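Usage

Read records sequentially. Each one opens with the input sequence:
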Amino acid sequence: MKMDLLGLSDPYVKLKLSGEMLPSKKTTIKKKTLNPVWNETFKLVVKDPQAQTLLVNVYDWDKVGSHDRLGMQMVPLKLLQPNETKELRLDLLKNTNIADPHKKQQRGQIMLEMTYAPFKEDNDVLSGPLSSVVNGEHDVGPGGGTPSGAGVLLVTVQGAEDVEGDHHNNPYAMVIFRGETKRTKVRPLTFRVKFIFDIGFFGLVIFNFCQQVIKGTRDPKWNEEFQFMLEEPPIQDKIHIQIMSRRMHMSFYSKESLGHVDINLGDVVHNGRINNKFHLIDSRNGLVHVELRWRET
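and closes with the structure output:
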């Protein structure tokens, strides 16, 4: 590993699956060592084990400035057998460029333990058509046997309709589950700029500039997915989704609630998936479109 002036590093590791937009998983930082030991476990949702790759990057933490990358490596998931733990000792590389003359420089090794645990077959039963609308809380419907075991709750906030604030409309969604809060991006105010060309005397071109402001959207589209890794099915749980709005500049009314909904997750577990539009509480006509999936390992 690369050393600082004292001959030591402050390494940490970032893990990410190829093709994912989610933030990387990150280990703790081990201070002043060239032989760090983490023994930390991370769970990542695999969507295509034949095509996806685990990206491993080791960095040297720095209090000031950017963190230097000590080395990297990639692990194709197709090398893993289902439900079998594989121990790997990988040589760290500078990059993936074969022609780089510095690629063969010794940069240390990293040891990983990887287990691929496939999800059980998805139950493709939907709780109604995509255009269905649910009022208030989403109640648990009748189902068959009760699922058990660990899995992942996938929450996709597709968008909202007819949400309107008293002071501004720059909406974003907050997903709150078991004390953890995740949020979508803000859909801000947009501006349309026009140039008007006039031909004046003596053939001069005169530019008249005008600006037309388009108010913040009332029908935002996010299509953002959030993942919650769980040790047991969330049969008795609810997930809280709140639509918020904020100003893009300093203001007394910095944030404003545009409505919320609490969704019972029992039918998500039993059916495997729901994809509905929900009426927002404390909103005149607002709707939020949410897809929820439960995938059991």
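Summary fields computed downstream for this record:
- Residues 223 and 260 are 18 Å apart (CA to CA).
- The chain is about 0% helix and 45% strand.
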